[in-house]
Sequence to fold (384 residues):
Amino acid sequence: MAGNNEHIETKLIHAGEPDPRIAGAVSIPIFQSATFEYGGEASYDAIKYIRLNNTPNHTALHEKLAALENAEAALVTASGMAAISTTLFTLLSSGDHFLAQSCLYGGTYDLATRELPKYGISFDFIDGSDPDTWESKLKPRTKAIYVETMANPLMEVPDLKAVVAFAKAHSLVTLIDNTFASPVNFRPAEWGFDLSLHSCTKYLNGHSDIVAGAVIGRRDLIEQITHKLNLLGGTLDPHACFLLHRGVKTLSVRVHHQNKSAHAIASFLEQHPAVRKVNYPGLESHSAHAIAHELFDGNSGMLSFELDGGVEAAERFMSSTRLPIIAPSLGGIETLLTRPTTTSHSGLTPEERQQAGISDELIRVSVGIEHTEDLIADFEQALA
Ligand code: PLP
Fold:
């Protein structure tokens, strides 16, 4: 077992592993059993049953994920959206209000703007980089503030320390979607956030072969969210738990490579004459470079950029590359390209995208673990 003071690389391998090992197995077996013998459990949530998120595959992952972010507890879910929606439905009831950073993942944006209002839950957008404007958005029943560590797809970084200070001053629960950063680059609990949300479909699993999510943070809140998830049913299947458990062990080696490679690619693109703008917090030109430099251990494998020549040039570039796969999603071992207008942010109206600063020609890159020089050479020939 890993101790609290060990490095994340060690925790990835050892934290949460069954002790003693089950029949000596070095890799945790898959507990493909819907139900387990009754052992005198005193509450509904404690009964051993797959939907109640408590097979050995679930509990091992919960301990490992909590350890990675130095948090009290964690819960895995059937998808990133199951983590986000179950958390918001746990914390907010009819009549409640929350603040959300204006540039959100498309699914979260859709949930906040179109679904939550049907349940009497309202919100206001805030400019994450302008804390002076937040107080005027508060309402008597504002309960939470929701941000993304690096907002999809422009890689905007809110003033994260101000978010925590503001929430403390106004008794709000702090929620942060930490998918893009991953626990290798940012650990929200260390900076005072109450809950960190993940699409484990991305970096945490890293192999583009499952959909999964997680909520990591304060134990009292995780217990409430677990109860809600048990009723809503967004449970992660044990086989997917096993794949996530296997995938997460290599998180650090993958993300360190992806950080370095994305930085090199962003720098290459920034000096290329055909490129109009590059969004990567590791670049000095990025508006949140100073915050990223202070708070993050790395800037992720995610970047986006715009070419001169609009949508046509963007499409021509994408189809001229040889290595990346043109596909939505991110955080896997293979480099992926997408135009967010056609994928992650297609649920927004053109006006909403314009307001969020997402142009039709924006290209998002999720850098994989291929050799950096091969990717740059491929981008160079595609730009030519
Ligand atoms: N959060 C972010 C930042 C995402 O990019 C995504 C998906 O792309 C999600 C949440 C939703 O995750 P999932 O597809 O696992 O439900």
Notes: The CA atoms of residues 54 and 287 lie 43 Å apart.
